[in-house]
Amino acid sequence: MALQLSGGLAPQWFTPKDADPEDPTPPRFLLKPLTQVQNMEIMADGEITSGGAFIPSHNARVKMLSWGIQDWQNINGPDGAPAKFSPGAWQQLPWDLLRDLATEILISSVLSEEERKNLPSQSASPETPSDLIATTANGADTATTPTPPQ
Asked: What is the value of pTM for the model shown?
């Protein structure tokens, strides 16, 4: 059988799980899954636990965020005015939100569309997993919970 190249996954809007369900304009992030080469780089920059879970390093999470966050909506700057998205602007977001965004980027990059559909939803966006540990097609767990900054 011939090898089929990866077609890549389209970016999808992600609404954080702690967004107010009554808010008509919650913050949203356009997240792009990693390419196969980016995914290999992330997987090389982390640890695999004795249980088979993958824990990315801080550097791996920073790479995922810089590659994966493509845009945002309903984010205000320090002055209360809408903040325009620009590369690197994500660095001003709270660390726990960055953790959730990195988790979502990794999960969307390693799980098939069918596997993502079978995970419980973490946000108001469809097909968004909630667990910080995902199981890949080959059965390996992928843990993505980062350590908070000191």
From this structure: 0.70
